[in-house]
Structures are given as structure tokens and as C-alpha cells.
Amino acid sequence: MLQVIYTILYSLGFALLSPAFVYKMWKRGKYRENFFQRFGRYAPELHRQLNGKTALRIWIQAVSVGEMNLALLLVAALRKRFPNNQLIVTTTTSTGYAFGRERLPADVVLLYFPQDFPWSVRHAYNLIQPDCIVLMESEVWPNHIWEGARRNVPIFMVNARMSPRSARRQRYGQWLFRHIFDKITLVGAQSQEDAENFRRFGAPQVEMTGNLKYDASLSSTGAAPVNVRQVLNDLGVTGTRPIFVAGSTWPGEEEIIFAALTELRQKVPDLFLVLVPRHVERTPEIVELAKRQNIKLALRKSGEPVTNPDCLLVNTTGELKWFYEVATVIFVGKSLVGEGGQNIVEAAASGHPVVFGPNMQNFKAIAAEFVAAGAGVQVADRSEFVHALRDLLHDEKLRVKVAGAAKLVIARNVGATDRTIELIAAALR
Length: 429
Hints:
Helix 16 (364-372) links the parallel strand 13 (354-356) and strand 14 (377-378). Helices cover 48% and strands 14% of the residues. The protein contains 19 helices and 14 strands. It has helices spanning 2-28, 44-51, 65-81, 94-103, 118-128, 142-150, 164-171, 174-181, 192-200, 212-218, 228-234, 253-264, 283-292, 320-324, 344-348, 364-372, 382-394, 396-411, 416-428, and strands at residues 57-61, 86-91, 109-112, 132-136, 155-160, 186-189, 206-208, 243-249, 272-277, 297-299, 311-313, 329-332, 354-356, 377-378. The chain folds into 2 domains: 40-211 and 414-428, 3-Layer(aba) Sandwich (Rossmann fold); 228-411, Glycogen Phosphorylase B (Rossmann fold, 3-Layer(aba) Sandwich). It is of the alpha/beta class. It has a 7-stranded parallel sheet with strand order 3-2-1-4-5-6-7, with helices on both faces. A 7-stranded parallel sheet has the order 10-11-9-8-12-13-14, sandwiched between helices. The longest helix is centred in the first third of the chain and has 27 residues, at 2-28.
């Protein structure tokens, strides 16, 4: 009965929200490719490829680019620990799919994750025939988990997080979530607070493994897709100019960043901005905003030539990490405006000081540790934002001090991948 009620509610929600989702997919592009995989419909060649099962299969679900980047770590570790097993990776977004196709080994099968209808999930299970399932971070899909439990497939939730906000919301649905989390074989939580939240909702085995993002920050997922220094040189931005990189920015933050750039350039006239929005489909609105604020903008891709631009707008996917490498100072977005924050570990691993706003709910433990160690600068508002950037740009010793503290924080937190793999191996034994 519980599954019937959930499926009815999910179907109603899907029907109401699908126009918005379709519009978003259309804006991001490439949504047509393998679209029906999202509903458990697969091409005949996939059936032929996967029907002849000759090895144990591990199914990893990584919702988008960030989780896919972490999945690359797990794929490498699992292939080393279980060399004869077959790996299938699924993702939810078209950007995650494009990233996975570019970076995953050729023998790893990449698919879209099915919508959480019983029939879609059942078709996916019939095709993949998993022997265990690895869910990244916070992928809680009831029909998916119930189907796995019905088939006695071990389900592992790794790098799991449950923010205080999510925990508060889920208390209203305890009648549902307790019947989901008790089906999960093992939860590897990012922090002690996350672990306690999962235990509170009935997960039978919860271990605090740490955050895979620390390991990912020190790993290489392949050669740089772009020569960033050459891109900047082509714009007339030489290696001596200070560079302010604003990564994963959110609607409302670009206006603050452009205003900060104008103010900062009064004292640092050769300061150059590299702006990397969280969603590249927002490029047109950012271009219009730059025009209104008299910011000369060059586009990373498909833009008109611009002489002596003030800013490079990176309207591509998967290049942010490499632009961090050339920064003088970094801002990590969705933290001044919006809620949740973005990954500051990858930015700090570049060896340059990181500034972020007050809204770091999804990275609460990481942000707190960085601030306590003097490894990052958290600001409360746009005024503090400008002051923090000005201080870092003018004081090289301060930049070295903050970056050095971040290096120590990262070094003492690595190892989550090995701990996670050991727990999975023990559970499978």
C-alpha cells in the first residue's frame, strides 16, 4: 500500500513539474540522445550487450557532473579491488552523461537513470541485472530502493549527506523514509552529523567514512581539456595579471561579482575576471547583465572577438577545475545567493585562497573546518565579500597563509575512497 501511495504522489508531481523539467533540459541541450532510457526503454544493442551476463555487476548512480567526478574515483578503486566485475554507471542529467562519456573507461557502460516509476525501475533492473548498487551522496528514490530490496540486491549509499534542512523536511515524511532507509545495506556518511541523521531515520548500518571530495581534489581525472593559460593569453591576459575566478555562480551572484570587479579595479586596474556559472544555459542573461554594468565580456565558446575584455565567461562544462589553477583569488558560488553552497575543496586544492558566502548548508562540516583552520574566508554579505577580495589581492603573504592552511586541511581528510571500498568489500563478503 505504501508503494502505491508513493507512486501516485510521484506520478502527480511528475505530471505537474514535467513542463519545467523539459524546458530546462531543452535549454541545456542534448536532451534527445537516449531520452527514453529515462523511462526504462533501451536500444536493442544495449540488450544484446548486457543480456549475456558473465561477471558480477556493480551499478553506480551519480546524479550529475559533481557526483560523476566522484564516481570516477570509485570506478578506479572498484576495478582495482574487483577486477573481474562489470561496472554500469547511470546519471540523471545530460551534463553528467556528457561528462561521464568523456571520462569513464571504455569498458564501463553508461546509461541514464530511470524515472522512479515502478515499471521504469523494473526495466532498468532487468537490463542491468545488478549484484550490488552504489548510490552517490543523497540519491533516495523509493521505488528504486524497494525494487533492489525485493531482489535482495545489496544497496550502498556512499559519500552520503543529509543536511539539517533535509533532515527537518524528512521528519514530516518519517512514515515513508523509515521504510526506505531500512532497506539500505550500508550508509557511508560524510560527517558525524550526517551519520546521526541517517541513524535517526532507521538506516541499519551507518559508518562515518569522510568526504570523497577531498580525495577527488587530489586526483587527476585525465588531461586538462583546455590550455587555460593559452586561452587567457589569446585574450591579452598575460601571466603577470591578477585573476579573480568566480566558480559555480548562481542567479543573483553575477550582479554582485560584476559590481565587485568594478570597485576592485579602482585599486587593482589590471584585475581580470573569469566567471564560470553553475549552469551554462544562463549565458544569455549573464551577457545582458554584463552589458548593463559596462563589463566587456568575452565568451569561452562561440563568442565574437573582444579587444581587451574585462571578463571571460566560461560557457562550457567540465573546465572549472583548470581555471582554478591560474587564479589569484577564488570565489565559490551558490553561497552568497541561493542556498546550499558548492564544493570549496576542489577550489582550495588549486593552491589559491578561497572566498565563499554564508549559505553553505550542503557543505556545513567542510566550511566549518576550513574557517576554523583559517583555510578559507567566509563572508556574510556583499560588503564583506569586496573587503575580503581586496585584502587577498593586496596581501601576498595572506594569500600564501590561507592556501597553505587549506592544503593541511585537505591532507588530513583524504582517505574516504579507501574506507568506502573496504566497507563495501566487507559487506559483500
